[in-house]
């Protein structure tokens, strides 16, 4: 046992928030509380919890999780759950390193030795996907994801969908699988058409075809298309996930470990999905700590499908996935897969000096936005 002696957080480029927890004996663990566009809000939550949880037993991860959840009265949401994720992941890393085992050994052990992964191509206004897909193929990927559309009106010209279909066909012609991210920016009048248009070309999945608050619309859409429907990055707990599973409108769940309360909650959500025959593909366009934590959980799941990674994603300006890890080759992609990391804890060594240097005067990332031709605000 060892009491928590210090909780620190570090804002680093491009848009990440790392957490370090150290106990009285000097054992430490790293977590990630990144919440794109809301860094300051998460930092405020962490400030309050730093004062509260100093002196708690670092080994009692579930007790601290339940304290955060049940004694705060106002529960859930992206800010609260991202702060909790940073603490939870760090505590799992600390405990596993202290015991000399990977986190997956504390979760029941692994059921696989390698995991399929995908990376992004294109950007918020996707173009030149053939060249980018070829580059990903050369890196060893067999699957990619891209935004399905640029910004789009509630009822736009059907011609706005044609480029999306052509991009999918272009990538498929290279022998690669492609997920199409609607990003919640496509509203129902257009989403129905786009799903049907993409269907003959067999996307790996269509992601967030509608915003998660429109569960009825997602259920109706799921009955109109054979495309696998993926969503979950804006669902922050098992309670948020439950109605989607019960309505049977999702085929692939994509919770984000940095937004849904960390290792503890991701594992619980995955178990719920297994009971509903729903595949699991964690959302992770974030940093190396979040990815490592995802992989530790993925290794233990029978219903794991594929893992997102942010290597070279268009948002990574000023730093990339490997910028803050010591071993720059920790995730070598071979045949579309990465090997499970053999190290203890998260399985990565964080370059603390690089983190501390980068955190000095680091600016918080601001979410982009779209403005339509009539000066109306559109979904990003």
Automatic annotation (TrEMBL):
GO biological process, one term: D-galactonate catabolic process
SUPFAM superfamilies: Enolase C-terminal domain-like, Enolase N-terminal domain-like
Keywords in alphabetical order: Lyase, Magnesium, Metal-binding
Residues covered by the Mandelate racemase/muconate lactonizing enzyme C-terminal domain: 126-228
One Pfam family of this chain: MR_MLE_N
Transmembrane segments: none
Secretion signal span: none
Cofactor: Mg(2+)
Matches recorded under Gene3D superfamilies: Enolase-like C-terminal domain, Enolase-like, N-terminal domain
Molecular function via GO: galactonate dehydratase activity; metal ion binding
Xref: NCBIfam families: PRK14017.1
Protein name: Mandelate racemase/muconate lactonizing protein-like protein
């Amino acid at each position: 046992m060892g009491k928590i002696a210090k909780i620190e957080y570090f804002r680093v480029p491009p848009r990440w928030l790392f957490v370090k927890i150290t106990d009285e004996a000097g054992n430490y663990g790293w977590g990630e509380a990144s919440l794109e566009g809301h860094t300051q809000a998460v930092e405020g939550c962490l400030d309050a919890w730093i004062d509260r949880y100093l002196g708690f037993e670092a080994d009692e991860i579930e007790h601290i999780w339940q304290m955060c959840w049940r004694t705060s009265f106002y529960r859930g949401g992206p800010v609260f759950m991202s702060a909790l994720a940073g603490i939870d992941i760090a505590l799992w890393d600390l405990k596993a390193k202290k015991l000399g085992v990977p986190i997956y050994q504390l979760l029941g052990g692994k059921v696989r030795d390698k995991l399929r992964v995908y990376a992004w191509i294109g950007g918020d206004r996707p173009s030149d996907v053939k060249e980018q897909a070829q580059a990903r193929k050369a890196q060893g990927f067999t699957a990619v994801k891209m935004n399905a559309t640029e910004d789009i009106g509630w009822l736009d010209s059907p011609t706005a969908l044609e480029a999306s279909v052509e991009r999918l066909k272009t990538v498929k012609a290279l022998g690669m699988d492609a997920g199409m991210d609607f990003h919640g920016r496509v509203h129902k009048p257009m989403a129905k058409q786009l799903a049907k248009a993409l269907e003959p070309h067999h996307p790996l999945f269509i992601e967030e075809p509608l915003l998660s608050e429109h569960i009825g619309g997602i259920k109706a859409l799921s009955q109109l298309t054979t495309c696998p429907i993926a969503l979950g990055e804006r669902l922050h707990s098992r309670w948020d996930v439950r109605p989607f599973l019960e309505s049977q409108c999702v085929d692939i769940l994509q919770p984000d470990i940095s937004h849904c309360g960390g290792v503890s909650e991701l594992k619980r959500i995955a178990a719920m999905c297994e009971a509903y025959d729903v595949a699991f593909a964690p959302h992770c366009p974030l940093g190396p700590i979040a990815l490592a934590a995802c992989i530790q959980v993925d290794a233990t799941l029978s219903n794991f499908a594929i893992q997102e990674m942010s290597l070279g994603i268009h948002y990574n300006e000023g730093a990339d996935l490997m910028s803050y890890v010591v071993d720059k080759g920790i995730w070598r992609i071979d045949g579309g897969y990465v090997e499970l990391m053999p190290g203890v804890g998260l399985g990565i060594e964080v370059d603390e000096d690089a983190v501390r240097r980068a955190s000095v005067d680091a600016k918080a990332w601001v979410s982009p936005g779209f403005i339509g031709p009539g000066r109306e605000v559109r979904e990003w």
